């Protein structure tokens, strides 16, 4: 019998039969006093310092901040690709210890295997031990969700940038994550494709709710997609790492009106926090 690994009540691993694709349920994420530093030529370089952040199940939270403030490091900490120096990260009731299979991650670059078709790239995201028939049905379902059913057999070189990024999203969703981590997923796309991908992400979230943590440099994107926006900063001070400087709740229900006056006001506040003064 085939088994997959899942967190047990004590944060370890337990086994269960894998005769069908498990549908994960969204879980909350808590960061408690998380700090991280890296060794540098002149001593430790502090990137994160006592970060406190609570993210609710099914919530979309955007992380914004200047380059090098530790946003991407924070994503890697959440999924266990990097370790914290001090503090604790919990997904649901379980502490993150090592790479956490409750998470899936998508990056700015799609990172598709060029010798595999779109369908085969999505299949790579399936949980270990997924039965073949169930996996095939799940992959077809995801390709339909991202609008790529007709392009399923194309290789990455035959896909546009937006199509390749949709494959990347489908591959991340194939893991059926409780937490979806997105690191500048639309940053390399042209402006129109980026807007379309933002709408697609909201459609995906409505169809398959999961907890989403999104890193972006685009304030408008953060305000359009997120329930809350966390401004990460403070790391430019010598010897100090970044913290959550402010946490803004975005008004209104998704999908929002991009021209909403309330969003324009929040945009000015966030730009001020990023060191870009508004002009009156």
Concise summary:
This protein has 280 residues and is α/β, with parallel strands linked by helices.
Q: What report would you give on this structure?
A:
It is a single chain. The protein is of the alpha/beta class. The protein folds into two domains: 23-102 and 177-249, Rossmann fold (3-Layer(aba) Sandwich); 113-173, no CATH class. Helices cover 29% and strands 27% of the residues. The strands form three sheets. Strands 8-9-10-5-11-12 form a six-stranded mixed β-sheet, with helices on both faces. It has a four-stranded antiparallel β-sheet with strand order 4-3-6-7. Strand 6 (86-91) and strand 7 (94-95) form a beta hairpin. Helix 3 (132-145) crosses helix 4 and helix 6 (219-225) crosses helix 7 (261-273).
